[in-house]
Structures are given as C-alpha cells and as structure tokens.
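User: Can you help me understand a structure? I only have the sequence.
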Amino acid sequence: MKIDRIESRGRIPLFAGLSASCAAVFLASCMSTPTYGTGKTANQQLVEDMTGILALGPQDKPQISYTPRGELVRPSTTTVLPEPQEEIASASNSAWPESPEERRRRIRAEADEHGVSRSVVATAPQDQRLELQRRIRENQQGVATNRRYLSEPPLTYRQPEAGAVAGDLGEEEWKKERAAKRGAGKSSWRDYVPWL
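Assistant: Let's start by predicting it. Here is the structure, written out as tokens:
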C-alpha cells in the first residue's frame, strides 16, 4: 500500500510541471499579440480581467487628481445689463421652415399683391410637377427617341415590333401561381380569403 501512495505522489509533481509549462507557453503567446494602444496585449488584458473576476476584495484603482475650478468672471458693473437676445428658434426668424399651408398662403398673397391671377400661380406648380415627373421617367428608363449615354441600347432595339403589345406587363406571377394550384386541385388558406 505504501508503494501506491508513493506512485501517486510522483504524479503530482509531473502534473504541476506540465501545468507550469502550459502556462509558460500560454504567456509566451501573449507577448506577440497587438496592444491596441493600451500598453497591454489583448490576451494579458483578458487574463487580468478573468483574475479580477475571481478577486473578492477591493481592488486598487488609480487616484484621480481633481483640480479646483476657476472663479466665475463677473462684469465690472451690474447696473446696466444688455438686453436678452431674441430666441433664434422662433417663428419670427426668417430661416424658420414654413408649413405647406403657410407657403400656399404666402404665394397667394404675393400673387394678389402683384396682380397675377391665382390660376397662373396654380399652373406654375403644376408645370413644375410635370417637369419633375418627366425627368424621373427619363432617368429611370431613358427616352425612346434619343440616346443619351453610350451604355443605353440603340434606338432600334427600343422600338417594339409592329404586332407586339407595348406597355402591357401581363398577369402578376402570384395570380398565375394561384391559378395553377387551383387547376391542380391543391388548396391553400388563401382560397378562403379571396381578397388576398
């Protein structure tokens, strides 16, 4: 029995030596990692954080040196003080955004003031809106009558064939899919809710 105890005691130093060598390898690997400007490697910071979790007592924290704040600068005389400034964020400010209703009222008032009829003012925004829509269409798909960019296809490619239906997008795919399922005899919950 004494021999068994001695053999188990021989394993403890072996285990301790193996643990120490693993720790040394681990710490050696910590030396080559970046510090990210903190002066400590990432692995070293991890080990310190992990051991800090296990520490039960209070830890030493660096002392902060507080300096007293300077005195307030007071005016030489308080008998005559300047008037308070008008608040910048007010409706009287010229840079204050106006609502669409206010803008409409302002345009109508300017039109009445200059003797312009309201129909002319109403057609001007309508013309602007039409011009904007034309530009959006032009930027999205180009113009069929002229080629603006080299990357656009030639004009002859843009013309539909004589018998082709131009501008018809056809039936939507989900409708085709539903009709095919109905034809095959399959039903789904959408068949019970026809408006979906």
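Now, to help you interpret it: The mean pLDDT is 77. The chain has six helices and no strands. Let me know which part you'd like to focus on.
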